[in-house]
Amino acid sequence: MAIAATSAAVVAPAAGAQQEQAGDGVYRGEVQVVPASAGTTEQNVLTGTVFVDDNEDSSAGDGERGLAGVVVSNGRDVVTADSEGRYRLPAFDNMTVFITQPNGYQVPVDEYNVPQFHYNHLPEGSPDLKYGGIEPTGPLPSAVNFPVVESPGTAAPEQSCVVAGDLQTYNRTQLEYARKGAINDLAQRNDYASCGSLFVGDVVGDDLSLYPEVKELTKQTNGPARFLPGNHDLDFDAATPEHSFDTFRAQLAPTYYSYDVGDVHFVALNTVEYPCTPDEDNLDGLGSHCDDPEGDPSYNGSIDDRQLAWLERDLEHVAKDKLIVVAGHIGLINYNDQASAVHQTDQARDVYELLKGRKAVAVSGHSHTTENMKKGDSAQGWKDTLGLDKLPFPHITAGAISGDWYSGEVTEDGYPTAIGKDGGRPGVLTLDIDGTKFQERYTVTGADDRVQTQLGINSPTYREWSEERAEWNENPQGDAPELDEPLVVDSGDLAGTTWLTTDFWMGASGSSVKVALDGGPAKKAARTQEMNGEAKRNGPEWSDPYAVAQQLVHGGSIADSSMHLWRYELPVDLEPGEHTAEVTATDSYGREFTDSLTFEVVG
Questions:
Q1: d(CA 236, CA 252)
Q2: Alpha helix stretches (DSSP H) within 404-490
Q3: Separation of alpha carbons 56 and 10, rounded Å
Q4: The Calcineurin-like phosphoesterase C-terminal domain covers which part of the protein (predicted)?
Q5: Distances in Å between the alpha carbon of 34 and those of 148, 251, 468, 477, 517?
Q6: Of 92, 149, 274, 412, which one has the fewest beta carbons inside 10 Å?
Q7: How many CB atoms lie within 10 A of CB 580?
């Protein structure tokens, strides 16, 4: 079942007027904005009602009951609706008022499956921005009423929730790649209809005029399509942080908000600060992390004081036994960018303190990598940049729909291979939730859920070729070095060190990989990053040869470091001829995934 929604509230029709119905069984509607009455002078308090929209016309009335206890916020203050569904909030210019969807209920969605649960108040509108920003809203409305309908689906403790990283389309060609790839996959699935999908930032690639076409894509998905902002969703011509996401707010969603599904409380955060310059006193007091050498405005991974205060107040209304999913574009922490403060969130430890004692998992995008980090994991870069020792709860970097920015060879299915700098492939993350427990799974674009690994041979010949090819790519002259047969191993290479590699995309601490050669006993492979506080390892010997062999020929980043790569050293006495390796990758939940590789020893 598809569900739709919009993000910009509109003036509701007169009482009793019927909204156009799609006839698809989906609750489609909008927030009811009642214009200010003539002569209204009070502009410092906003009132309204959260109501159960029995006739689905988006208008409060006809005896429809108010819904008590629903959380309502202006992005600063947090209140709950009274016994009749009424609320009162302090009002100020440039605020976004929104509700937290309660479990057992569904907010309306628009024709594009974008949820309608908020109202932007900006009386004079945005400053002059290239992509328009928010149109003037005029005086404070007499009321802003939020409709919901009952939903057994959102009440169920079993949920599947899609987390989609970095759609990041720069043009219409890439929109078509996304449509033929991950969006087509999501259109074929119906397991996530109640929870929906959360696109965790970089919805487009700087061209905000593409938002309407992105919504044409989410029109094909099932369940609500929610969004949070990334560093490529910015109004780059905004002079202050207060207006840096105005076009995003007008087209898609608040910059931060929360919603409930089953026994889970989702918090969608804005972890991007812009503009951020080295010589200014930024909201978080960490201007030095804005490291543009020219002093031009740049972005930084950061959560401002107002949002942190909102998060604390929001969590006060959440039962202690709920699972909290904390989502942001720039992750609280990241493996690939562990040495960069800009690409992690300055206030990570503040968020950890707010979540202390709670069940939680953090999800993010930004790095275009897949990273499954467990409680207790540690990395040298986190100590150096954030003063962080061990993770207090799991963190997952969700990969990217765009993969490695739509690079590489275009497949016969009409989208690029786009293999990432960690060897990961484009796809989406799903959290399969049962009560307050969850299991993560990654679905590669165009593939079955059982496809979780890619295998390769890392030999001295491969490593020499990869270095030569990388140098040639920097300064192409003459013929490019070739690696014609990546699965042929010279017997002389076995005297050095040759590994069979397994890139296990959702592999993590607690996972294992075993290799059985030619029907023999299965033996353990070693993980290249133990996540025990060591520094990031990179270079040809730590690379994914399957990925690099494609990237150095067809373009893209180089997969020379990964937290999810395992290596098995091939015996030095392997006889010449064909050999088969059977690989079993077991995740931290005991789920097994099998793969095989046939290679040849010569000489």
A1: 17
A2: 460-474
A3: 16
A4: 398-593
A5: 17, 21, 67, 69, 71
A6: 412
A7: 12
